[in-house]
Specification:
The structure holds 2 protein chains of 2 kinds. By secondary structure, chain A is of the alpha+beta class. Helices cover 25% and strands 45% of the residues of chain A. Chain A has a 5-stranded antiparallel sheet, covered by helices on one side. The radius of gyration of chain A is 12 Å and the shape is globular. Chain B folds into 3 domains: 6-169, 3-Layer(aba) Sandwich (Rossmann fold), CATH 3.40.50; 191-347, TPP-binding domain (Rossmann fold, 3-Layer(aba) Sandwich); 361-537, Thiamin diphosphate (ThDP)-binding fold, Pyr/PP domains (Rossmann fold, 3-Layer(aba) Sandwich), CATH 3.40.50.970. In chain B, the strands form 3 sheets. Chain B has a 6-stranded parallel sheet with strand order 2-1-3-4-6-5, with helices on both faces. Classes of the chains: A alpha+beta, B alpha/beta. The complex binds thiamine diphosphate and magnesium ion.
Chain lengths: 92, 560
């Protein structure tokens, strides 16, 4: 299934790397990735990551990401296969 | 007025955080920190010079596991830092709070392949709970305080702070934020889930508790025992959960997993409700997970949400501190008497009796490893700390060394790191100078951090070193015997004369081959106030049973 994961994180060096490590360890390929600082003080970032995964594994991945100290909030959304419109939202 | 340097700020911060022991090894990039330690070495900060940085990390782990406080280790940049990685990974797998401080090349040289530059943050990131690089002196104190808080909060783990040499050398305004109180985040208890869990336990016919390391980490031993006694629930422990319930408790049925006990394993498939506390259903515990606990609803208590539903889906997940949750659960759990269910454990336990008998009382032939462990058990105090290495001796120590009184069992669980025991025992002994600390290792493991005999010599660490020499990498040999047609590829191993080697380090050593010598030699060994090494030559061929063949289900457990 196709998922979009949105994460709010600290805006510090290495966060992208740590998040990528979670994907690498799960051997999940990233189809699309957007990162940007989100507030005026540039202290926080938003990640938007799209990937294919099984349902159970995608949830595990989201929880493992939430475990990272720099990650404040994670939201996992299942998309229609490859599509852009969110189907159901599942906050982990 | 003297302006402190970053290095002085580092040492003062550690002191203000209550740290009084550091395991480390100096080198170029970290030299300013060692210079500051020199100033502060007036008895308030003890630095233990190890002989390899891997040992510094393991010693910090041994220290942390036996005190509940963060263990601290220090290394220089480049090879010093990379040598820590095995220890860091071990601490990550076993949820052990350690702080690793590494030197780094000057900020101006970062990314230039400078001498002894290694991208330690990139290497350590996947195996630390958190890591950060500090490039200016003013950031040292707050970063160290944050690192300490992260290491010990929630599910503990290793953290690493990499400090560039210029940050250590330059002047700073030393302002230390107060060390945050050690926090097990008091997540609001999920009252509904607690009621659901109690309902499951109250209606269960065959409830069974699986006890993990989390119980020890949260200090939930009393709360757990109270609940189990009230509801009359039998239990077993993972290798790192051993000791959370005393071995002689009537509800305790031993160890789970590949080399665990017969009843302990088989009953997971019979139970209708499993109460899993601070354990993570490791594959060495579940065997084939699709065939694990097929008849049970699962109540899973863990402080790390990422552990819930990871391997075994939980019927009732409870996220939080084990002690708080168990205390909240107990009042809702009905008093029960489950004599028949308990009795069925006892009957299955008896099936294992021939295995125990053969291992512990062989009629003739060389000493068995199992009987050496049991003799150690009989020789040691009620407060001994056993640090087992990795292999057959580890599993046999878990099986035959009885954890009663305030005894502790420390070992490398999740990573299975050979060479863990000697440095970890150093850390444990330094934390507990008055307790008997015994490192139990195989002949293979003994040579994986043997250089630490130097640390022991210099620091006069009265640790006891028991080498069970079967002349094989025994655990691998056992697998070759059972699953590779007895093709013993690269598992016969020759060792030095261990007592003579000890003597070279000014450590008294002895060697035992005969059964009659074993008990007297062990008595002298454990009761000495000095360091001792004892090598026991055991039979070359001995297998650890029961065993769940790898890939098998717990119900495939073999007694021979
Ligand atoms: C660093 C490391 N390398 C390899 C292994 C694989 N391994 C597990 S147990 C074992 C044998 C240990 O031999 P020994 O210390 O003699 O213990 P025994 O099993 O004979 O009691 C080996 C090689 C490991 N766990 N760790
Ligand atoms: Mg051996």
């Amino acid at each position: 299934m196709y998922y979009t994961l949105t994460a709010i994180t600290e805006n510090t060096p290495g966060v992208l790397y740590r998040i990528a490590s979670v994907f690498l360890q799960g051997q999940i390929n990233i189809e699309r990735l957007e990162v940007s600082a989100i507030d005026e003080t540039r202290t926080r970032s938003r990640f938007r990551i799209e990937f294919f995964d099984t349902e159970q594994h995608a949830h595990l991945l989201a929880r493992r990401m939430e475990r990272l100290v720099e990650v404040e909030h994670v939201e996992l959304t299942q998309e229609k296969d490859g599509g852009e419109t969110p189907q159901n939202t599942d906050s982990t | 007025m003297h302006t402190p340097t970053g290095a002085e700020s580092l040492v003062r911060t550690l002191k203000e955080a209550g740290i009084d022991t550091i395991f480390g090894y100096p080198g170029g990039a970290i030299m300013p920190a060692y210079d500051a330690l020199y100033t502060h070495s007036n008895g308030k900060m003890r630095h233990i010079l190890v002989r390899h940085e891997q040992a510094a990390a393991h010693a910090a782990e041994g220290y942390a596991q036996t005190t509940g406080n963060v263990g601290v280790c220090v290394a220089t940049s480049g090879p010093g830092a990379t040598n820590l990685l095995t220890g860091i990974t071990n601490a990550m797998m076993d949820s052990t709070p350690i702080l690793c401080i590494t030197g780094q090349v000057n900020q101006a040289l970062l990314g230039t392949d400078a001498f002894q530059e290694s991208p330690i943050i990139s290497m350590a990131a996947p195996v630390t709970k958190w890591c950060a690089q500090v490039q200016s002196a003013d950031k040292i104190a707050p970063t160290i305080m944050r690192a300490l808080a992260i290491a010990e909060s929630g599910r503990p783990g290793p953290v690493l702070v990499d400090i560039t040499k210029n940050a250590l050398a330059e002047a700073c305004t030393h302002e230390v934020p107060a060390r945050p109180e050690k926090s097990r985040p008091s997540l609001p208890l999920d009252e509904k889930a607690i009621l659901e869990a109690s309902e499951l336990l109250n209606t269960a016919k065959r409830p069974y508790a699986l006890v993990g390391h989390g119980v020890l980490l949260s200090g939930a031993q009393d709360a757990l025992r109270t609940l189990l006694e009230k509801a009359d629930i039998p239990c077993a422990a993972t290798v790192l959960g051993l000791g959370a319930i005393s071995d002689d408790h009537p509800l305790f049925h031993g160890m789970l997993g590949m080399h665990g006990n017969y009843a302990a394993n088989l009953k997971t498939d019979e139970a209708d409700v499993i109460l899993a506390v601070g354990m993570r259903f490791d594959d060495r515990v579940t065997g084939d997970a699709s065939r694990f606990a097929r008849n049970a609803k699962i109540i899973h208590i863990d402080i790390d949400p990422a552990e819930l539903h990871k391997i075994i889906p939980a019927t009732v997940p409870l996220v939080g501190d084990a002690n708080a949750i168990l205390e909240a659960l107990t009042p809702h759990v009905a008093q029960a008497d489950r004599t028949a269910w308990r009795e069925s454990f006892r009957l299955l336990d008896q099936c294992e009796e021939p295995v125990r008998k053969e291992a512990l009382s062989p009629s003739d032939g060389p000493i068995s490893m199992s009987e050496a462990i049991r003799a150690l058990d009989e020789a040691t105090a009620d407060s001994a700390i056993i640090v087992a290495d990795v292999g057959q001796h580890q599993m046999l120590a878990a099986r035959y060394y009885r954890l009663t009184g305030t005894r502790r069992f420390i070992t490398s669980g999740g990573l299975g790191t050979m060479g863990f025991s000697l440095p970890a025992a150093i850390g444990a002994q330094i934390a507990h100078p008055q307790r008997q600390v015994i490192a139990v290792m195989g002949d293979g493991c003994a040579q994986m951090n043997i250089q630490e005999l130097g640390t022991i010599m210099q620091e006069k660490v009265p640790v006891k070193i028991l080498i069970l020499n079967n002349h094989y990498l025994g655990m691998v040999r056992q697998w070759q015997e059972l699953f590779f047609d007895e093709r013993y590829s690269a598992t016969a191993i020759e060792s030095p004369d261990f007592p003579a080697l000890a003597a070279a380090y000014n450590i008294k050593g002895a060697c035992v081959r005969e059964r009659a010598e074993l008990a007297p030699a062990l008595a002298e060994f454990v009761n000495s106030t000095e360091t001792r090494l004892l090598e026991v030559h055991v039979r070359t061929i001995e297998n650890v049973f029961p065993m769940i063949p790898s890939g098998g289900a717990v119900t495939d457990i073999r007694l021979q």
